[in-house]
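Quick one, tokens below. Sequence please?
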């Protein structure tokens, strides 16, 4: 859905250790830091590719404990880095079961912030719904929901009553999420202070890759979103 390429402005993926937490596998980029900031990254359907390794390395460079969650550890690697292959694997995921693993992992590892992209952003919405008290950031989630054999309730069914803060970073021209859905998301945020939505004019789905854009406006949007993300984590 989102990131199958990596902007050159992000750091080269650093060293990590593979770890497990009660059925959930994650890549630990923490470099043995004892920081009280512990951030977990939830990926899109492409999984733990170079883009997300680079983002986790960026988080670790801030001096934070940085974990990259492998949502697809039981489903194997992608046979090829294509949307079709990624969607085929995604449809095998059980979202409710996966959410429960994420929630337990957050508790067991004393996580203080979760950043989710696309599919991962929908898990962030669910964490907010369940009042999990960590800093929550969602890049281009799907508030109208995503089909799944073990699906979560669409975020639109509860966002108006949301009580736990969540920051949403989304393109105002995100036609994959749906322009009407972006408009509705912004409208809800105007009446519910727990939902903070930054919708970037002209930006589309996956706009963080515009860190390398030759268009100054799109590049600024990506840079501002990343600065907002980093600030929201800590």
């Amino acid at each position: 859905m989102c990131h199958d390429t990596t902007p050159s402005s992000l750091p080269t993926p650093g060293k990590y250790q593979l770890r497990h937490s009660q059925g959930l596998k994650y890549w630990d980029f923490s470099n043995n830091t004892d920081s009280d900031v512990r951030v977990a990254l939830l990926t899109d359907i492409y999984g733990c590719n170079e883009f997300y390794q680079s983002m986790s390395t960026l988080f670790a460079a801030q001096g934070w404990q940085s974990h990259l969650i492998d949502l697809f550890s039981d489903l194997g690697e992608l046979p090829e880095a294509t949307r079709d292959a990624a969607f085929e694997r995604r449809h095998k995921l059980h979202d409710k079961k996966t959410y429960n693993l994420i929630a337990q992992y957050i508790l067991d590892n004393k996580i203080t912030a979760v950043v989710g992209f696309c599919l991962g952003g929908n898990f962030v919405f669910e964490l907010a719904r369940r009042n999990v008290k960590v800093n929550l950031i969602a890049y281009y989630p799907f508030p109208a929901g995503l089909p799944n054999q073990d699906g979560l309730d669409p975020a639109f069914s509860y966002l108006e009553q949301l009580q736990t803060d969540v920051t949403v970073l989304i393109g105002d021209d995100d036609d994959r999420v749906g322009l009407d859905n972006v408009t509705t998301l912004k409208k809800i945020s105007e009446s519910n202070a727990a939902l903070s939505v930054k919708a970037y004019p002209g930006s589309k789905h996956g706009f963080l890759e515009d860190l390398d854009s030759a268009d100054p406006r799109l590049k600024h949007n990506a840079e501002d979103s990343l600065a907002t993300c980093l600030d929201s984590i800590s």
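The chain has one domain: 17-233. Residues 30 and 96 are 28 Å apart (CA to CA).
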